[in-house]
Write a structure and sequence with these properties.
Length: about 230
């Protein structure tokens, strides 16, 4: 299957009822077909199998799927792109075209987190004022906390300062990502658990009048103190 045939296949799987359901969860972008993640993963499995011995072609197809602008094609691109072929120019392009939380999270988890650039992306995007670009930085913190077995506790320590600094951002998809990052780091081990709870308490003390900061901190403490 080339990118044209894949897109044709995606269109046959379009489900308008699912599109409406996704809207209730603020999922999906400007051009959404309403295809479920299991269906997309199954299609990705077939693409990965077909191009197992031709990663150049597979990555090219992934880039073409992204450029289609179709929400599900972009998620499929994240599922099939070859991490070894990633470059910062393409990563920047994708990140600045994120238009929903689910495309951001799926791409970070399935693609960016497997590239050699995964440790650079937090610092690269955390200062952005664009909602989904900034979200990317904190989603990457969460991805590293969950999946990277080689990263040390010391590597996570600078993230606590960033989490405190950005905890007053009231935008829904930023504050939820900040909260997610802090919780996932805190669930990695007992040492980071204590540091994450300590960070949450610092947030409350520093920003007592910020609704976002209070929510991030209280939700984190509530979850992590039971671990």
């Amino acid at each position: 299957m080339d990118s044209i045939k894949i897109i044709q296949k995606l269109k046959t799987l379009s489900n308008p009822e699912n599109v409406e359901g996704m809207k209730r969860f603020a999922a999906g972008g400007k051009n959404t077909l309403g295809i479920s993640i299991p269906e997309l993963r199954n299609l990705a499995k077939n693409i990965n199998k077909e191009y197992k011995n031709n990663p150049d072609k597979k990555h090219k197809i992934a880039l073409e799927l992204w450029d289609s602008g179709i929400h599900e094609a972009r998620i499929l691109a994240a599922f099939t792109a070859v991490p070894e072929y990633a470059n910062l120019a393409d990563i920047d392009k994708w990140v600045h075209e994120f238009d929903s939380w689910d495309i951001c999270d799926q791409t970070c988890n399935s693609y960016f987190g497997k590239t050699i650039y995964k440790y650079e992306l937090v610092g690269r995007y955390v200062k952005s004022e664009k909602e989904f670009v900034k979200r990317t930085a904190f989603v990457m913190m969460a991805v590293l906390a969950v999946h990277d077995k080689k990263i040390t506790d010391k590597n996570f320590e600078p993230y606590f300062k960033l989490i405190i600094e950005k905890s007053t951002d009231e935008r829904n998809f930023v504050k939820k990502a900040v909260n997610w990052a802090l919780r996932q780091i805190g669930k990695r081990n007992q040492n980071l658990n204590k540091l994450a709870i300590k960070t949450a308490r610092k947030i409350i003390k520093k920003y007592p009048d910020s609704k976002s900061a209070r929510w991030i901190a209280n939700d984190t403490v509530k979850e992590l103190e039971t671990k």
